[in-house]
Amino acid sequence: MATLDLGTDLLSLTRALCDLPSVSGDERAIADAVQDALTGYAHLEVLRDGDAVVARTHTGRPSRVVIAGHLDTVPIADNLPTRLIGEGALAELWGRGTVDMKAGVAVQLALAAELTEPTHDVTWVFYDHEEVAADLNGLGRLVRNHPDWVVGDFAVLCEPTNGGLEGGCNGTLRAEVRLAGVAAHSARAWMGRNAIHAAGEVLRRLEAYTPAEVEVDGLVYRESLNAVLISGGTAANVIPDACVVTVNYRFAPSASVEQATEHVRELFDGFDVVLTDAAPGARPGLDDPAAQDFARAVLGVTGGVLAAKYGWTDVARFSELGVPAVNFGPGDPLLAHKDDERCPVGQITLAHAALRAWLTS
Amino acid sequence: MATLDLGTDLLSLTRALCDLPSVSGDERAIADAVQDALTGYAHLEVLRDGDAVVARTHTGRPSRVVIAGHLDTVPIADNLPTRLIGEGALAELWGRGTVDMKAGVAVQLALAAELTEPTHDVTWVFYDHEEVAADLNGLGRLVRNHPDWVVGDFAVLCEPTNGGLEGGCNGTLRAEVRLAGVAAHSARAWMGRNAIHAAGEVLRRLEAYTPAEVEVDGLVYRESLNAVLISGGTAANVIPDACVVTVNYRFAPSASVEQATEHVRELFDGFDVVLTDAAPGARPGLDDPAAQDFARAVLGVTGGVLAAKYGWTDVARFSELGVPAVNFGPGDPLLAHKDDERCPVGQITLAHAALRAWLTS
């Protein structure tokens, strides 16, 4: 079994985590190593569900915070083992997982080991299956199987934010715009009605659409509405009688799924619109005093900014439990999933210092 | 082995052919029956290549005509065995193959048996694999393997024409219009460029396109240009970086494949257009004296009209050999391949009488 030394320096710990591959569905080895490493600390109660590991303090503080990160990564793209490029303040750690999100996990593990008496009781959560279909998500499974393991007054997800603070997240929905026509042999096209040509109007409306920017609790959420898939036709000699345009609407957390669906229906008025998938956004929750304390403490150290999170993230799962939650972690989110994924070493150190400052002040 | 009685009445012969299923690829039994039936006639030389059967007279006439039909059908749609509905002049034979094209084959077989001394030497061709990919086509195979079996001064394909005469055929080409974009996570759509949205302009041009009607040798060919397939996108959370629209252009036989390709390129100026498949059309050839004789003889009997053939048919194979060729046969071509495929019995009788008049006068 791989072993992790939580007392080593942050860079070495991050590399050890990255160099232990854990593509979604294959997190057993890293979960075993994390569980084993944490079990050595007397101030932590260590729990396990599938390949998720939870470690929590019981110091009797009046408040409890949840600090969570996922152990899995997207598939490796010939970018492991990690490589350290550059020196000193410019050094960057290259490789799969450095940004999304094993640098964040390293910060969590180091602090879990070190902070025997944090100023809030802390529940450290390490979970599986974040990078795949939502119904497999390990945090979702914990919420279902052991809701008591993940409750708290405030939650932090250590997803990459460049050391800034990202609050809430956009909601997302997918809908199919279904066009119907009349099939005919293409040698006698005038006997049919072309469903693909009918999709031209759908694409025209998408092209003309101006996505909104919506302010929610002081943060600006940038929306988008795009065709992500299109498919039509049955054979190269048949006038197509069906075409489906799948659109993805990313909407500000001030709108409900119902309101967002209605917006899409209005845009495609006159067309057959079928909702196929939706998840609500999460308001940033930065009006909550715990969140404000957190923001002051960590941004004071990193000098990062407060911004809206665009992508749907697991903060929405906390939001549904009524727990205010934010994203805060090392690494540039734009480099997540990229072949040239890499994280400045300085950001890992700074994120560690910032969380440490918050949990010790 | 199934047996065919070529001396029976036309309706019974048509039914016997239809009730012997021969979906493309499964023509062995019907080819065996046709070969066996023709072999009984001393005035015919019978040849075989795969599941194609050729029977020809050698009476020493100065001219030879080729009269061809295919033995295969599209898949059965619960429409066999045949049913006779209605009586007398209104009777119709319902079922797979009645139109496309076993009524025509029945007319061929009856005349092949009966006409021991036709006014032109006749090569009767019965071939396989017409309803599937062009490279499997039995007539094409005969042209490659035994060109001497299919040469003549004039050719008739007994495809359904409602008893009229259809000359030549449109050419056909397929091209892909390929749109490129830049992939991005759909939560940050503004980082990418949507290739599906770009297809909107392609569909807009198709929608605005007015197909031409082109007169060739006195017949009017109706063209068409349609999107037949569209496909784009890789996943429901990714801004698509590629979209392909497959268009099918059916063009009048006065244009070459090169000219037709250029027309498509001009229409989609500014886009990446890749030709994937093309077949030239065939001019009607009705300026040929043999064709004019034929038209006078058969239309005098059926009262049918002379018209352009829109779909690409095997007459183009004769055209490429320099043999003028036309379509003439019983049945409404619009009912070919339909579940309710059916042929008026009167048309079968009339087609037989018309070809008989031509070959005996």
TrEMBL record, chains A, B:
Enumerate the InterPro entries for this protein.
Answer: Bact_exopeptidase_dim_dom, Peptidase_M20, Peptidase_M20_dimer, Peptidase_M20A, Succinyl-DAP_deSuclase_DapE
- Which SUPFAM superfamilies does UniProt cross-reference here? Bacterial exopeptidase dimerisation domain, Zn-dependent exopeptidases
Q: Which GO terms describe its biological process?
A: L-arginine biosynthetic process; lysine biosynthetic process via diaminopimelate
> Which residue ranges does the record assign to the Peptidase M20 dimerisation domain?
171-268
Mention one GO molecular function. acetylornithine deacetylase activity
**Pfam families (alphabetical):** M20_dimer, Peptidase_M20
Superkingdom in the source lineage: Bacteria
Alphabetically list the UniProt keywords: Hydrolase, Metal-binding
Q: Tell me if Metal-binding is a UniProt keyword of this record.
A: yes
User: Might you give the EC number(s) for this enzyme?
Assistant: 3.5.1.18
The cross-references to NCBIfam families, in alphabetical order and at most eight, read: dapE-gram_pos
State the PANTHER family in the record: ACETYLORNITHINE DEACETYLASE (PTHR43808), N-ACETYL-L-CITRULLINE DEACETYLASE (PTHR43808:SF31)
Name-wise, this protein is: Succinyl-diaminopimelate desuccinylase
**Could you tell me which species this protein originates from?**
Cellulomonas humilata
